[in-house]
């Protein structure tokens, strides 16, 4: 069986940057998991004494607080800044952008529509920058009975699929006079999605490696699954099952933006041993 | 055979307003046909001595110039205003709006994309208000090789179909970071289109009455044709053919936004006489 990696996969710019920041910070605490990958977070704790707190309430005598790649809410940031702690911002710049857009458009009187998961930390952060009406939706239907302002600004979670974003925009075009669309889906997301789409059309079995709470990983898995029935989402090599690879010619592999190369390598090594 | 009018059809607000303006103006000249309906223009000439010029170059000793519903170019308007003639503006307010948007967005540094017919007077007028890059397209493919600014404002001809407009916006979302969409398709267009869609699904034969150079009439005809093979576009009752109505149970009728009721009535009378 041949093993082939997608032409684009794994660590994105924002994750690489955040890990470097955390490694340099040492002895710091992150507010929420720095990235959506438990194994990499364990590595940072073991090697750099970077611990993970659930929220700012858990801060006690830490000297440095790292803001996770997904960002935090505006009020949490203000509270941190007031507390006198050394705040190290590892928010992905592609997430800072929608936060800024949300604040600016809201100040200009636009209603804000965010295409994303209400419970995802990135979206909690972005949403907190709106001072007026803000609606977080995954489906255009959720806006059906909403009385919107005639000027609406639309933002997407950085890791969403463009097709659904287009549908939501089309729906809004029917409802309001001005739809100001900011395509805040990040390029790495685009590229990883396109690569997994192409590879999964050819592969007999697809392995997607990434955190099960990672939005971009779940998107990759859903794209792979559409093209290749035998697609599996795993966090690490221990979840692999030899039976998946029986009578397969091509095994495609991709990984979410928070998945470090060393985990991908362990997965490849184990699959090769099955052969 | 039953004859049924679409639930919304014919004269729109802008056309009614323009005709009233022309009737009150008397002895004036319009720059280009006031509306896209030759018969109504003949009536205005005969009853109110309102003549139709091809362009401002044809003006000689007229005292009053009427601007047509579709508007004129910015430079023509400036020249008219300078000439000292009494300028009477019958531009539909729903056309003035995209002109203003085009000018404002262009001043703010946006590239402008107009979904419309390059040769339609409305679009010539709207386009003339852009001072920077402006692209008039009917299909998203026409933008494939265009190097666009990362901020694009999109406007539609008032009489276009929303579905294609959505496709163009979706395409732009893939190309640029900000797509500022102004849905400038007018409500009357929407309503007439929806009504013809519903009626033509039930009718056995559809008659669409309107100018053959009228954009909104052509859209109505194309919608009717999709649902009902036996659809016909006519300018007046002389074009009717008795054979179209043989063995039909339901004849649906609609008319473009420039079609006066008296023409529609003549058509109905003649079809009734076929029965």
Structure description:
Two copies of one chain form a homodimer. With 275 residues, chain A is of the alpha/beta class. The first copy, chain A, has three domains: 2-9 and 188-274, Cobalt-precorrin-4 Transmethylase, domain 1 (3-Layer(aba) Sandwich), CATH 3.40.1010.20; 13-91, 3-Layer(aba) Sandwich (Rossmann fold); 94-185, 4-hydroxy-3-methylbut-2-enyl diphosphate reductase, catalytic domain (Cobalt-precorrin-4 Transmethylase, domain 1). Chain A is built from nine helices and twelve strands. Chain A has helices at residues 13-25, 38-48, 74-83, 93-107, 121-127, 162-175, 187-202, 215-227, 261-274; strands at 2-5, 29-31, 51-53, 64-67, 86-89, 111-115, 134-137, 151-156, 178-182, 205-209, 231-234, 250-255. A four-stranded parallel β-sheet of chain A has the order 1-12-10-11, with helices on both faces. A four-stranded parallel β-sheet of chain A has the order 3-2-4-5, covered by helices on one side. In chain A, helix 8 links the parallel strand 10 and strand 11. Chain A is flat and about 60 Å long. The termini of chain A are close together. The interface between A and B is medium-sized, with 15 and 15 residues.
Key attributes of the depicted protein:
homodimer, 275 residues, alpha/beta, Cobalt-precorrin-4 Transmethylase, domain 1, Rossmann fold, 12 strands, flat
Strand content of chain A: 15-25%
Strand numbers in spatial order across the main sheet of chain A: 1-12-10-11
Q: What is the helical fraction of chain A, as a range of percent? A: 40-55%
What's the story with the biggest beta sheet of chain A?
A: 4 strands, parallel
Which architecture of the largest domain in chain A per CATH?
3-Layer(aba) Sandwich
- Seen as an oligomer or otherwise, the chain set is homodimer
User: What is the global morphology of chain A?
Assistant: flat
End-to-end distance of chain A: 7 Å
Total domains of chain A, how many? 3
Q: What structural category arises from helix and sheet content of chain A?
A: alpha/beta
* Number of helical segments with 4 or more residues of chain A: 9
CATH topology of the largest domain in chain A: Cobalt-precorrin-4 Transmethylase, domain 1
Order of helices and strands of chain A: EHEHEEHEHEHEEHEHEHEEH
Write down the CATH class of the largest domain in chain A. Answer: Alpha Beta
Radius of gyration of chain A: 20 Å
Mean pLDDT of chain A: 95
**Unreliable runs of chain A:** none
Most residues in contact, chain pair and counts: A-B, 15 and 15 residues
Keywords (chains A, B): 4Fe-4S, Iron, Iron-sulfur, Isoprene biosynthesis, Metal-binding, Oxidoreductase
Binding site for dimethylallyl diphosphate (chains A, B): 36, 70, 120, 214-216, 258
Protein name (chains A, B): 4-hydroxy-3-methylbut-2-enyl diphosphate reductase
Binding site for (2E)-4-hydroxy-3-methylbut-2-enyl diphosphate (chains A, B): 36, 70, 120, 158, 214-216, 258
């Amino acid at each position: 069986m041949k093993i082939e990696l997608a032409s684009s996969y794994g660590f994105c710019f924002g994750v690489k940057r955040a890990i470097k920041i955390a490694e340099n910070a040492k002895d710091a605490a992150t507010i929420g998991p720095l990235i959506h990958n438990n194994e990499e977070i364990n590595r940072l704790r073991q090697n750099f004494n970077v611990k993970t707190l659930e929220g700012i309430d858990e801060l006690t005598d830490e000297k440095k607080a790292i803001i996770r790649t997904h960002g935090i809410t505006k009020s949490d940031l203000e509270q941190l800044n007031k507390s006198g702690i050394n705040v190290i911002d590892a928010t992905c710049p592609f997430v800072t952008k929608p936060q800024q857009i949300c604040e600016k458009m809201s100040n200009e009187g636009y209603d804000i529509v965010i295409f994303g998961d209400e419970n995802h930390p990135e979206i909690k952060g972005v949403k907190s920058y709106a001072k007026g009406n803000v609606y977080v939706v995954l489906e255009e239907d959720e806006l059906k009975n909403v009385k919107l302002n005639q000027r609406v600004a639309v933002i997407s979670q950085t890791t969403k699929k463009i097709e659904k974003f287009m549908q939501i925009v089309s729906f809004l075009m029917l409802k309001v006079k001005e739809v100001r669309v900011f395509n805040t889906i990040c390029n790495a997301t685009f590229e990883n999605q396109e690569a997994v789409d192409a590879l999964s059309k050819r592969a007999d079995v697809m392995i997607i490696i990434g955190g099960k709470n990672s939005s971009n990983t779940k998107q990759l898995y859903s794209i792979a699954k559409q093209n290749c029935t035998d697609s599996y989402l795993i966090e690490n090599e221990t979840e692999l099952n030899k039976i998946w690879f029986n009578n397969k010619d091509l095994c495609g592999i991709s990984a979410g933006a928070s998945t470090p190369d060393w985990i991908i390598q362990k997965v490849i090594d184990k699959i090769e041993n099955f052969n």
